[in-house]
């Protein structure tokens, strides 16, 4: 299960190790849209300002990290084509704000083996959403994990 940038990490793991991942839960995926590049860069810059002065966190290293982490397009780790071909059973809990754009979730929702959970946000939905996640993961566990 990945949330925010964790969606990118989950897809990267699935792409790197074919057959390793049996299911994906994708909550509030971060991604690059037509209107949020500046907002993403500002969030990184705030974090980087806090990191400066720590051992190994010089300006050049932080710039390289920024490029590796957020330099791509879409969800920063895999292409739209990878997601469109991804047959790993997936449960999407879509995003709908500036850094978790609805259009990124809409692209992910086109994957062949995906279920979309809407609505899922808010304290009044938390218990039901987590039950749905648990049910989904249990249904897609390839072995008895007990």
Key structural traits:
146 residues; 4-stranded parallel beta sheet; 4 strands; 9% strand
Strand content: 5-15%
Q: Number of DSSP strands?
A: 4
Helical proportion, percent range: 40-55%
Question: Could you say which structural class the secondary elements and strand pairing correspond to?
Answer: alpha/beta
Largest sheet: 4 strands, parallel
Ends apart, CA distance between termini: 19 Å
Along the chain, the helix and strand elements come as: EHEHHHEHEH
What is the radius of gyration computed over CA atoms, rounded to a whole number of angstroms?
17 Å
Q: Counting H and I runs of at least 4 residues, what is the number of helices?
A: 6
Poorly predicted regions are none
Average residue-wise pLDDT: 93
Global shape: globular
Q: Which strands sit side by side, in order, in the main sheet?
A: 1-2-3-4
Structural commentary:
The chain has 146 residues and is α/β, with parallel strands linked by helices. It has six helices and four strands; from the N terminus they run βαβαααβαβα. Strands 1-2-3-4 form a four-stranded parallel sheet, with helices on both faces. The two termini are 19 Å apart.
Concise overview:
With 146 residues, the chain is of the alpha/beta class. The protein contains 6 helices and 4 strands. The protein has a 4-stranded parallel beta sheet, sandwiched between helices.
Topology:
Elements: E1 2-3, H1 5-16, E2 24-27, H2 37-51, H3 59-70, H4 80-85, E3 90-93, H5 102-108, E4 114-116, H6 126-139
Parallel strand pairs: 1-2, 2-3, 3-4
């Amino acid at each position: 299960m990945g949330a925010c940038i964790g969606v990118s990490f989950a897809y990267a793991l699935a792409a790197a190790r074919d057959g390793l991942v049996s299911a994906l839960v994708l909550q509030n995926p971060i991604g690059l849209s037509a209107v949020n590049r500046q907002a993403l860069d500002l969030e990184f810059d705030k974090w980087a300002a806090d990191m400066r002065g720590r051992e190994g966190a010089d300006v050049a290293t932080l710039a390289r990290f920024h490029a590796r982490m957020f330099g791509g397009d879409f969800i920063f780790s895999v292409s739209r084509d990878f997601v469109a071909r991804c047959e790993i059973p997936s449960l999407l809990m879509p995003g709908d704000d500036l850094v978790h754009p609805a259009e990124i979730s809409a692209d992910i929702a086109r994957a062949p083996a995906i279920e979309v959970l809407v609505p899922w946000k808010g304290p009044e939905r938390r218990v039901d959403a987590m039950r749905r996640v648990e049910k989904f993961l249990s249904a897609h566990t390839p072995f008895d994990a007990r």
